[in-house]
């Protein structure tokens, strides 16, 4: 999955133009290299003020209209080997856990994600079934009377969060 951003400038925008270009961030290894490319792209301006008008596959915590996180290229490198579901989970985790992406150590950030991420489930109740199977030695008779729905509700009152099928342990 490629992260990309549409880069224009405020001067062009203020003059009624959205002229810019979609840029794939995977083509750069540092923010300096990215900004250098953007400067060349908008060489028709003396001191271009970049405007990130649209983006794809970038968590909103890493980008805004006028700024890009210093850590974005480290994060892109770290997530480049992740499959789509895990990348989706990482984005969801960032949204719900609110880590300080600009200053947190990237390796520690990913360790925290890996510690918190429990997996993908169709429902909170499906997760409750797994917890019972893994943690409790209940007979089939007892399982047939067990209230999984209530157990799931209790689990997600404070210990876990369910976000778009992904389950995270609350730290």
TrEMBL record:
Residues passing through the membrane, by range: none
Name of the protein described by the UniProt record: Antirestriction protein
InterPro entries reported for this sequence: ArdA, ArdA_dom1, ArdA_dom3
Organism: Myroides marinus
């Amino acid at each position: 999955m490629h992260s990309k951003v549409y880069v224009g400038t405020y001067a062009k925008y203020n003059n009624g133009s959205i002229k810019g270009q979609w840029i794939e961030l995977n083509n750069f290894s540092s923010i300096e290299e990215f900004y250098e490319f953007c400067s060349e792209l908008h060489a028709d301006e003396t001191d271009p003020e970049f405007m990130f008008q649209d983006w794809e596959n970038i968590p909103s915590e890493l980008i805004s209209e006028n700024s890009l996180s210093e850590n974005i290229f480290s994060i892109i490198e770290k997530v480049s080997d992740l499959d789509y579901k895990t990348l989706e989970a990482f984005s969801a985790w960032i949204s719900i856990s609110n880590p300080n992406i600009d200053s947190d150590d990237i390796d520690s950030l990913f360790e925290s994600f890996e510690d918190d991420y429990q997996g993908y489930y169709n429902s909170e109740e499906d997760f409750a079934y797994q917890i019972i199977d893994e943690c409790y030695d209940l007979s089939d008779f007892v399982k047939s009377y067990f209230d999984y729905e209530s157990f799931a509700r209790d689990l997600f009152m404070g210990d876990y969060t369910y976000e778009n099928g992904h389950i995270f342990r609350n730290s």
